[in-house]
Amino acid sequence: ELGFRAKDEL
Amino acid sequence: MNIFRLGGDLAHLLAIIILLLKIWTTRSCAGISGKSQILFALTFTARYLDLFTNFVSVYNSVMKVVYLAAAYATLYLMYVKFKATYDHNHDTFRLEFLILPAAGLALIINHEFSIIEVMWTFSIYLEAVAILPQLFMVSKTGEAESITSHYLFALGSYRALYIVNWVYRYYSEGFYDMIATLAGVVQTVLYCDFFYLYITKVLKGKKLQLPA
Question: Membrane-crossing residues (chain B) (predicted)?
């Protein structure tokens, strides 16, 4: 429910 | 990549360049909070631990290196080269009041309990509050040079644009990250009164004066 980390973002 | 995130990254890069130019050209770091700069260096260090292990794109790697180099270059200029111009007396925010809660929260609320993920989460929470020493310093001195207010405007705009990017990504690809988004909202809200002063005063050529 927290979603997930965007590995492509700075 | 979308125009909101690209705009955010460019605003962030602009802020970092404005700050370096201000310190370098005026040979002074008056009015700049060294403590906030320490928090930004800590933020990038904790966030980019995967710089060498997780290649995303040339752009991504280059920007990470630029942010890290600029953060540490700023610390060098403030604490070594132009140390005499650093305003200790007005830069008094206790860093442990920001670092410890961010670290504690990162251990409790994260996407995954691993070193890289917890350090990334710590960097997200820390970045959200990293500007507080700077805003505290501006409120204590009661004013800021216009170059410093341009720096703060660009810095505040960067995360505001990232919020638009997250909204766009949610509707276009169903992506969402509640940790980064909520921390980003907190970070941007902290700039609100500054944004108001910047738009009503600085853009009209007046000096940024905080109501005493």
Answer: 6-25, 62-80, 92-109, 115-138, 150-168, 174-199
Q: What is the token pair recorded at B112?
A: 């995954």
Q: How far apart are CA B201 and CA B104, in angstroms?
A: 39
C-beta of residue B31 within 8 angstroms of C-beta of residue B144: yes
**Beta carbons of A2 and B109 less than 8 Å apart:** yes
* Model confidence band, residue B212 (pLDDT cutoffs 50, 70, 90): low
Of B40, B6, B19, B2, whose CA–CA distance to B154 is shortest? B19
Pick from A1, A6, A10: CB nearest B175: A6
Question: Given an 8 Å threshold on Cβ–Cβ distance, is B175 in contact with A3?
Answer: yes
Which A residues, 1 through 10, put their C-beta within 8 Å of a C-beta on chain B? 1-10
Q: What is the ipTM of this complex?
A: 0.98
Task: Kindly report, residue by residue over B178-202, the tens digit of the pLDDT.
Answer: 999 999 999 999 999 999 999 998 8
Which of B48, B108, B90 lies closest to B72 in space, CA to CA?
Answer: B48
pLDDT in tens, chain A (10 residues): 899 999 999 9
The tally of domains found in chain B comes to 1
Which residue from B43, B28, B24 is spatially nearest to B87, judged by alpha carbons?
A: B28
Cβ-Cβ pairs closer than 8 A, A with B, add up to 41
Cα separation of B159 and B126, whole Å? 13
The answer to whether the Cβ–Cβ distance between A5 and B109 falls below 8 Å is no
B174 lies in which domain range? 3-209
